[in-house]
């Protein structure tokens, strides 16, 4: 099938290529029960050398820049406790970690989680972390601009391959809270 966004040769329903996904992502697709049918979540095979957003859009379509989102793992600290959470913002914005995220988590300090923590806790590869298949008890903050898009390109759990997910499906993910202004324009 033709991909709804980007210059990809082929898009496959994620339900038909579970072997291409990491275990937590495949399990989430298998158990999908959101308002958007699981078959509308698509997988596209991509070269892992081009996984980073700027290089990626050069190879797979500049229009993807406006339809791409990053899933960022953050650590919120309050006293001796740490809360891990994930945030999804458009690639054209930067995550408001020490404002909106910190306040939502009720943390004194919030920062990007160390790479080893992010990959170890999610079971996903760095550079491919996706909100599909995250630990169910994690808070998942999703910028409202992501939910408003017809399709969004996000990681697949690996550096190879991406998921094309209908925007409104992000609101159905476990622990999801849709927030206005989670992502801010760079320099804002």
| General form | globular
Reading the helices and strands in chain order gives EHEHEEEHEHEHEEEE
> Helix- and strand-based class?
alpha+beta
Q: Count the strands?
A: 11
Write down the Rg.
15 Å
Query: Spatial order of the strands in the main sheet?
Result: 6-3-4-7-10
For the largest beta-sheet, the strand count, sense and barrel status come to: 5 strands, mixed
Helix content: 10-25%
Report the mean per-residue pLDDT as an integer.
92
What oligomeric arrangement do these chains adopt?
A: single chain
Uncertain stretches of 5 or more adjacent residues? none
Strand content: 25-35%
CA-CA gap between termini: 39 Å
> Number of DSSP helices?
5
Provide a descriptive summary of the structure in words:
The strands form 3 sheets. Strands 6-3-4-7-10 form a 5-stranded mixed β-sheet. The protein has a 4-stranded antiparallel β-sheet with strand order 1-2-9-8, with no helix packed on it. The chain contains 5 helices and 11 strands, in the order βαβαβββαβαβαββββ. β3 and β4 form a beta hairpin. The model has no long low-confidence stretch (mean pLDDT 92). Helix content is 20%, strand content 26%. The radius of gyration is 15 Å and the shape is globular. The longest helix is centred in the middle third of the chain and has 9 residues, at 97-105. By secondary structure, the chain is of the alpha+beta class.
Element layout with pairings:
Blueprint: E1 12-13, H1 23-30, E2 42-44, H2 53-60, E3 69-78, E4 81-90, E5 94-95, H3 97-105, E6 109-112, H4 115-122, E7 140-143, H5 144-147, E8 152-155, E9 162-165, E10 176-179, E11 183-184
